Amino acid sequence: MATKDVVEIRWHGRGGQGAKMACLLLADVAGLEGKFVQGFPEYGPERMGAPITAYNRISEKRCTIHSNIYNPDYVVVIDESLLDSVDVTGGLKEGGAIIINTPSSPQEMYPRLRGWTGKVCTIDARRISEEILGRNFPNTPMLAAVVKVSGVLETESFLADIEESFKHKFAAKPQVIEGNMATLKKSMEEVQVG
Amino acid sequence: MSSCLSGNEAVAYAIKQINPDVMGAFPITPSTEIPEYFADYVASGEVNTEYVTVESEHSSMSVCIAAQAAGARSVSATSSCGLALMYELLYIAASCRLPITLACVNRTLSGPININNDYSDSMGARDTGWIQIYAENNQEAYDNFLMAMPIGESPGIRLPVMTCMDGFITSHAIENIELLETDAVRRFIGDYNPENFLLKKENPLAVGPYDVSAYYMEHKVQEAEAMKAAKARILEVAAEFEKISGRYYGLFEEYRMEDAELALVLIGSSAGTAKAAIDRLREEGVKAGLVKIRVFRPFPGEELARALANTRVVAVMDKSEGFSANGGPLFAETRSALYDLKERPYLIDIVYGLGGRDLKTEDIEKVFSRLADIALTGEIGPIYTHMGQRSKEEIE
Q1: pLDDT tens, residue order, chain B (396 aa)
Q2: Is A159 contained in some domain?
């Protein structure tokens, strides 16, 4: 599929959970750090709660491929219930990892992963978000988790650059920046690597 | 200036830098974001464009026609059924020789209703008299939009220009982009000073009146001559653009064609996917190459024939059906262009990607494998086929 100097990430979420926003934000921040990036959701009739997919390619050279990602290095599952309906590990590279939003441990997830024996990471994104932001915005914790697990960006520079990006994005409501930054930091500490 | 933008953001930003006099604005997926982002620039006073919200695409193009006829620079954006609803007006714009710029974010046409990408919208408008320029990615979408006005407004041309990009694949994907400084853009675009316009008091003009048979044909021949002349103008503007951007554009792009024996001819974002596949095949020693058509109207027939003259087998890949029962529109143009060659390559047509059906590097490799078989056996097989659709068994 892609050459090995491209990191490919596939996001699975449900409409309204912010998978697209997290995907575009990751592209934006990686771009700020001088990487070549692609961030694109798969579009169809959009509706709340329907399974959606989004993709990132992050590389040192411009990637010209414009297909969806079939053999990702990392899979992010924002909604645990998708494990029952979507083949989320389909095509996931052997040395890759899946990161799931769940209160369970990585070990507990294997029986639900259709034979996937590679690396599994978990994070209780809902709890972290509700504790810090007061509402369930699972995409921010998942973004932090995938950056931490993949190492595609340096943690320190990622946090600094995303804060800049938030300042633009939330120019009209700067009060949400602090909570989002705290959520990112907490999530990086809490993600469990199996 | 380096940034990361989606194709729609890039075009909206290009329009902001140009600061046109009038925008006819009507939303339709996936082009909606262009007037949406641009509305922010209007609201914040960063441009002084007259932003005209209307009730349909028929009206948005009518607004552009009226404004351009009055001597104002006008732009619009649309997709799919929106372009179809403009159909009548597209001919009016071109035949009145009004150099409007339209961003067409390619989406298939209903039915069945579908919001995803193919070229059935702009291919349906290929004979309306508009110049059509297609982009592979966000950078080209931005660059092509900036080049549209110097091409269309040129006194020897005076034709409207449609800049096309792939819906969602390009319009909604964030990628790296190099933006020009606004001052450089303004200098490049220049002012729009048509020597005649509707309300010019020294020489008021009627635009679009009845043309009797004694004159109609002369006007159509002039329009056809302008389209022919547009090829040279497109290249002149590209040369000027290279001076300010460092980026070169031709009528088409040749990728690894120097010694290519097997080649593809296609349009848009698929070219990027094909380039990656070609790089891999080249490592295996396959003499594979690609011609990416950038300018479809005027069609660069003679130039394309020269580019393909030394190949052995060529696949044209059409991302629109056309229902001619004789191959897609790009195939028809390509086959016609090759007719005058003394020795022609074998030529097949593959229709793919309809309604957003994804094209993978593996699909491109399969096409080259078929071309290699034809080269080896001399057996061309079916000339016009479809790729990527599931069989009845797979669906059940």
Answers
A1: 999 999 999 999 999 999 999 999 999 999 999 999 999 999 999 999 999 999 999 999 999 999 999 999 999 999 999 999 999 999 999 999 999 999 999 999 999 999 999 999 999 999 999 999 999 999 999 999 999 999 999 999 999 999 999 999 999 999 999 999 999 999 999 999 999 999 899 999 999 999 999 999 999 999 999 999 999 999 999 999 999 999 999 999 999 999 999 999 999 999 999 999 999 999 999 999 999 999 999 999 999 999 999 999 999 999 999 999 999 999 999 999 999 999 999 999 999 999 999 999 999 999 999 999 999 999 999 999 999 999 999 988
A2: yes
Tokens of B44: 């914040």
Is the minimum CB–CB distance between B273 and chain A shorter than 8 Å? yes
Contacts of A37 in chain B (CB under 8 A): 4, 174-176
Please indicate whether, in this complex, the C-beta atoms of B360 and A41 are within 8 angstroms of each other: no
Q: Of the candidates B176, B356, B360, which has its C-beta nearest A36's C-beta?
A: B176
Question: Looking at the partner chain, which of A27, A63, A70 has a beta carbon nearest the beta carbon of B4?
Answer: A27
Listed residue (B299, B305, B142) closest to B234, CA to CA: B299
- d(Cα B182, Cα B18) in Å, to the nearest integer? 8
Which residues of A are less than 8 Å from B170 in CB distance? 66
Closest to B134 in 3D by CA, of B15, B267, B12: B267
Domains of chain B: 2-245 (3.40.50.970), 252-395 (3.40.50.920)
| Interfacial B residues in 321-340 facing A (CB < 8 Å) | none
Q: Contact, B309 vs B341, CB < 8 A?
A: yes
Query: Which chain B residue's Cα is nearest to A66?
Result: B273
Going through chain B in order, the beta strands assigned E by DSSP cover 2-5, 22-25, 50-53, 74-78, 101-106, 131-134, 161-166, 174-178, 252-255, 262-267, 288-293, 295-297, 313-318, 346-351, 384-386
Q: Do A43 and B3 touch (CB under 8 A)?
A: no
* C-beta neighbour count of B357 within 10 angstroms: 17
Nearest-by-Cβ selection for A66 from B2, B3, B269: B269
Residue A35 in domain: yes
What ranges make up the beta strands (E) of A15-50?
36-41
CATH code for the domain in which residue A172 is found: 3.40.920.10
Residue A39 and residue B174: Cβ atoms within 8 Å?
yes
Q: Which of residues 38-57 of B touch A (CB under 8 A)?
A: none
What is the largest distance, in Å, between two alpha-carbon atoms of chain B? 72
| Beta carbons of A39 and B360 less than 8 Å apart | no
Task: State which residues form the domain around A140.
Answer: 6-193
Enter the ipTM. Answer: 0.94
Count Cα atoms within 13 angstroms, Cβ side, for B363.
23
Is A67 in the B-facing interface, judged by CB distances under 8 Å? yes
Count structural domains, chain A: 1
Does A159 contact chain B (CB < 8 Å)?
no
> Is residue A1 included in any domain, yes or no?
no
For the cut 60, the answer to whether the pLDDT of residue A1 exceeds it is: no
- Per residue in B291-304, pLDDT (tens digit) is 999 999 999 999 99
Which residues 89-128 of B are in CB contact (within 8 Å) with A? 115-116
